[in-house]
Amino acid sequence: MQFSALGVPEKETILCLRYGFASAWLLYGQLLVETKSGEQQIKERDIMWKKMGDKIAHIDASGQTHMLTPDEIEALKTTRDPPGMMWMWVAAYIGRLSQDGWIPPMPTPTYGRVMNLCQSAHAGIRQVRGSISMQAPLTYCHMLATLVHVNNLLNALTFGIVSGLGIATTMIAHGWHWYGRDVVLGKSLERAADASPKESEQDLQNMLVTFLYCFFGPLLYQALLMISMQLAQPFGSNDAKPPMHRFLHQLEVDMCNGRDLLDHMPFERPRFKQPAAPAPAAAASAASAPAPAATPANTVAAGKI
């Protein structure tokens, strides 16, 4: 938007936007690489750089410009924070445009506004990297994991004891238990029940209620634990990571739409750097020269203009 308002040429604008857009892809790729370890991390990093070299930057309408050139990739490979370093290039390039006269000079508020946009982008990248590296929710995840495991253990023991008591009471009430008192009933010796059917029903009801508490309670705690782990490591799982491909594709479409919309403005494009005035002799000769005949080619060209 700033470059369009200042009339920066398309070539310089595309270069600046390509660097900024490449930083977003590099940030996404690095966050995915950091979830790996060992040789897998090295392999994934090589794949990331290869994709950056093969990817086409559609901001250039020619379709022949890659997101990063081989020389740029070799220079960025030596840095620890490639997406942040991309904005060092953008800031330096804006200074070059200021010296060349395409944007206002450095002491002006407009130049400061453009540089503030670069600093905001660089700060956003560092904030994302800091959030992933520090993993603020990780301590909460450890505490919650301990509570969940202890709760699961206590619930398992509780339900085991209640189930044993309920089943034992039922067996005793129906005379299926090994232990009991032998009593003489008539001429036969039978085993007397120490529990009544009513007590058996009460113990079975307690066992059912305990099952509901001990099953659904730990299930909810386990769900909270999984959610906390996904918050602490959002790029560690394919099911939980943000849809960055879709976001970046939408951003690229927006940039291309802004580029194409400049060709349909109902007024002349503004520009900060005014073209040089023609020399007096050249202007006089151009005024005295006869007008060319209206050929079909000239007519077509004029119609296009």
Describe the structure.
The protein is built from eleven helices and two strands, in the order αααααααββαααα. By secondary structure, it is mainly alpha-helical. It has two domains: 155 residues, no CATH class; 95 residues. The chain has a two-stranded antiparallel sheet with strand order 1-2. β1 and β2 form a beta hairpin. The protein is elongated. The relative contact order is 0.10. The C terminus is likely disordered.
Short summary:
The protein has helices spanning 2-6, 10-33, 39-54, 70-77, 82-100, 109-134, 138-173, 197-232, 244-261, 280-288, 296-304; strands at 181-185, 188-192. With 305 residues, it is mainly alpha-helical. Strands 1-2 form a two-stranded antiparallel sheet.
